[in-house]
Amino acid sequence: MSKIDIRVGVDIGGTFTDVALRHPGGLSTCKVLTNYSQPEQAILDGIVKAADQASIALGDIRQVIHGTTLVTNSLIERRGAKTAFITTEGFRDVIEMRSENRFEQYDLNLNLPKPLVPRQDRFTLNERMGPDGKVLLALDLSEVNAMVDTIKAGGFEAVAIGLMHAYANDAHEVAMGEALSKAMPNLSISLSSVISPQMRELPRFNTVIANAYVQPQVADYLGRLVARLRDTGVTAPVFMLHSGGGLISVETAAEQPVRLLESGPAGGAIFAADFARAHGLDKVLGFDMGGTTAKICLIEDGAPKTANTFEVARTYRFKKGSGMTVSTPVVEMVEIGAGGGSIASLDSMGRLQVGPRSAASEPGPACYGRGGTEPTVTDANLLLGRLDPNNFAGGAIPLQIAESEKAATKLNLSARDAAFGITELVDENMANAARVHTVENGRDIEHFTMIAFGGGAPLHACRQCEKLGIKALIIPPGAGVGSAIGFLKAPFSFEATRGLFQRLDDFDAGALNAALIEMEAEARAFVDEGAKGAETEIRLSAQMRYSGQGWEIPVVLPHKQFEDSDVSLILSAFEDAYCTLFGRIIDGLAVEITNWLLTVSTVLPDTEPVVGYKNGSDANVAQTREFFDAALRKSVAAREVERSSMTPGKAVEGPAIIVESETSTVVTSGYRAVGQGDGSLLLLAKEA
Q: Cβ of 321: how many Cβ atoms within 10 Å?
């Protein structure tokens, strides 16, 4: 490995900022507490710490890859720019009317999310495009000039423009945007025809508004980050991981920050997918548990499942339908409020509940001794003997058992009973989310292997497998900073989208081919910003449905020059995908295509197969300590083994705890752990 290969990945989470530095000597990792007031400071601190561990000069780093929750947090906390929204006459209230679905049917006091742009800041133009791109009502220049004056007088920092059917013809959006840009050069302007050129006005409007709302803040943050890195001695280019699992330039991220919504969790999915390929696994459940949330995603045939819509800023944080749906490429995952910092409390009926509130890094769990007084999942794990108070985060954060006991007894239970209740409730919530997610995708979870990562996942994964009936679990090396390592394994990629409605019985191959040429050129231009000349691959999919249905399913298709005779090929692919999800097809109904998605990405190097072991000789046991085995409902004497002792072919029977600097792996009494050829731990049910 040369200096050119020295790369660093940085993931800012709700509690910790994780750093992974790849260098000639291997991989150096570290965790530092997230700095909420200056998130870039935690990045700098972490990079300096990792570079010191590796004896690497900061100037030798050749690439910085970053994932951030800044966009998501800004939308949740409503800390964006003063934004105006310009749309077509008659569609001013689309974002307030939403889909008109009640996500909590029996809640008489239902709290609907308020639009990011209040009604008085939403303006209309008397123009209209048809869904085929034909001008039905031309844009009046005098009305454009009047709108410029209105925006200028309103003192807006950002403007989102979303006109009807602009995905089919962007002329009116472009004209309005150019007029605003000419009058106010420093104004942040987002066009829906650029940000989300797809059918369905609600998600398209939400997406362009979200982009405009966070753009000034994200651009400022990224500018500060690049400047601070250079001042510190890191002159390497900065790339961002987008929520679809690929890398884009920092300039593209500043222009289209809505693509960063789930950038951190996407890194974890890439991390798990890499190990799935190495271990030859085609059905994997990725389980990522950090300090604030837990995420679950499906990985099949070595790739995480993706979607083109995502729900953000939920008023009922983990209730599907209670947020704002945006159209942007994203690794599909389910998220619940179950992290190490999730706070336990009693509801109005005296029942125990955990999350969604989190102690985060400030003040943190009670055991951190930083001012936290409420019981958290980390406090519970400490009380149950699953964490070593003297070796948490590599000994950087000594844990205080007395503070955890004091916090836990606020739940009107003994400290031990409260801790058991907290962990068991969290584990059941996560297991239930995994069950629902796999069923919704037409899969049987018992046939999957779990790959667990994140600081909290190795503590809970074995118990998850017991609840889910999963027989095999992999804990990769560096699991505690898995998302940051995943950044280093991500390809450069960009997904271009187009709304092009066609019924298969009226399929127009010429119109499709023209759109695909434009989409490929757009995607390649973005990929070339970071990896010009690299070998690339193209993935194509279509959003399809039966005529009369209200939603589409993704259908993977070959990238090719289509002909009118390819209708049978497209129909067959749709029916296969539909049958996989729903177990049947519907005869006699016409089939429609709404949107097309084309991704250009750099080709990843082949993953070397791992030498696997299912049995082995006994690993060296450092000592024995007690921990509470939830399945047995009692404390057991557990073998404590250093992760470094779990070399290939070394094994330990549960109950055991395998310790390392970033996390600990709990092996329950029903499982055994075996070291693998790549440094992973394979946990197998003893009857398997």
A: 14
Task: Classify domain 493-602 at the CATH topology level.
Answer: Dna Ligase; domain 1 (3.30.1490)
Percent of the chain whose pLDDT exceeds 90? 61
* Three-class SS state of 474: strand
- What would the mean pLDDT of 109-132 be, rounded to a whole number? 91
| DSSP 8-state class, residue 321 | T
The rounded Cα 430 to chain-centroid distance in angstroms is: 16
Are 468 and 438 in contact by the 8 Å Cβ rule? The answer is no
CA dist., res. 112 & res. 103, Å (int) = 9
* Residue 211 CB contacts under 8 Å (≥ 6 apart), including other chains: 160, 190, 195, 256, 257, 258
CA distance 657 to 611: 23
CA distances from 517 to 199, 215, 497, 500 (A): 19, 29, 12, 14
Q: Is the dihedral of CA 252, 255, 259, 260 positive or negative?
A: positive
3-75+219-260: CATH superfamily: ATPase, nucleotide binding domain (3.30.420.40)
**Torsion angles phi and psi, residue 58, rounded to 5:** -60, -35
Instruction: List the chain domain ranges.
Output: 3-75+219-260, 81-217, 493-602, 617-680
SS3 303: strand
For residue range 417-453, list pLDDT tens digits in order. Answer: 999 999 999 999 889 888 888 888 888 898 899 999 8
Residue given tokens 């123009």 in the structure block: 127
Q: Please tell me whether the overall predicted TM-score, pTM, comes out greater than 0.70 for this model.
A: yes
Residue 355's alpha-carbon distances to 349, 459, 507, 541, in angstroms, are: 16, 18, 50, 37
Pairing of strands 650-653, 671-675: antiparallel
How would CATH label the architecture of 81-217? 3-Layer(aba) Sandwich (3.40)
Q: Rounded to an integer, what is the distance from CA 134 to the centroid of its chain?
A: 38
Instruction: Report residue 23 as tokens.
Output: 């260098």
